[in-house]
Amino acid sequence: MELRQLEYLVAVAEEANFTRAAERVHISQSGVSAQIRQLETDLGATLIDRSGRRATLTTAGSAALVHARAVLTSVDAMRQAVDDVNGLVRGRLTIGMVTACTVAPLFEILAAFHHAHPGIEVTLAEDDSDRLIQRVRSGEVHLALVGAAGAPPSGLDALVLVSEHLVAAVPFDHPLVKRRRISLADISDYPIVSMPEGTGVRAVFDQDCARKGIRHNIALQASAPGTVADLAARGLGIAILTESMAANHTDRLKALPIRDSTTLAILAFIWAATDTPALRELLRHIRQFVTTGTDTSKRVAPA
User: Which end of the chain is flanked by fewer CB atoms within 10 Å, N or C?
Assistant: First the structure.
């Protein structure tokens, strides 16, 4: 008894015709017929009634069909299990991260994943959040860490690491430094130092300003939050950052809450599908990291 004979039996039973069954399994009709007869000889019973226009199962054939399907299902499961193991040995993943990324948890996750699965080839792709989202949707990037305004992008699976409000960070000699809170209108009178379009922080700022009908003056742009802070500290404008970004520069800048900036800046892992063993395993590492109780809000910031 051979697996192909069981496959042919299932095909004949479902097609009720030797010709259509042969087309389905891509061999000649005579080949299907010969293999079914060999199976009948091995089992000592007629499985297919060939007396009518349709090929129908005999009682013995119906009993055999149940087990034939079960065997083929088990074989498929075994192949999938082996493929999964091979995928974890020889897989490839392209991971996207925002340009100038300094998110320590991402690097810790990748290091732990590499240690557990050294055979999986990991490629890092830097880009802004908007383009990374497009690349995940197209399948070019398997998983990406991106910033977004308010909520993760629709149509993708996501795991949010942190969400927080924007602040306006000013040097200690700035006219607004003595204020406890400010509005979007207050800062519109001054030059702004911001991250570029395509980043989550900029999307939040633009969205909130548009909602209030405020036009802002973007004087300078930089991809790295640290550079935005450096430029603001040198008096070149008000830095628009998240709370955790600004917390890294309290020696040079004062972070002022913006009372009417209500959209949250989020940082999230996003992916389109978990159709590879390597990606499923990486997601397991990510979820394990997130659920360990680590206070990620102190270590990561939307970009």
Answer: N
Nearest to 204 by CA among 232, 162, 166: 166
Same domain, 176 and 252: yes
The answer to whether residue 296 scores a pLDDT higher than 50 is no
Select from 147, 148, 163 the least CA-distant residue to 100: 147
Compute the distance between CA of residue 116 and CA of residue 206 in angstroms, rounded to an integer: 42
Under a CB-based contact definition with an 8 Å cutoff, are residues 268 and 143 in contact?
Answer: no
Residue 210 near residue 204, CB atoms below 8 Å: no
Q: Binning pLDDT at 50, 70 and 90, where does residue 83 land?
A: low
* Over residues 202-221, mean pLDDT: 94
Same domain, 43 and 126: no
Residue 110 belongs to domain with CATH number: 3.40.190.10
Residue 42 structure tokens: 């091995």
Model pLDDT for residues 111-145, shown as the tens digit of each residue: 888 888 888 889 999 999 999 999 999 999 999 99
Of 193, 172, 190, the residue nearest 241 (C-alpha): 193
pLDDT of 34-53, one tens digit each? 999 999 999 999 999 998 88
DSSP state letter for 258: B
Element of type H or E holding 264:
none
With left for phi above 0 and alpha for psi between -120 and 50, is residue 211 left, alpha or beta?
A: alpha
Task: Give the C-alpha separation, 188 to 218, whole Å.
Answer: 9
- Total of domains in the chain: 3
Query: What is the rounded CA–CA span in Å between residue 184 and residue 235?
Result: 19
The closest of 267, 301, 294 to 96, measured between CA atoms, is 267
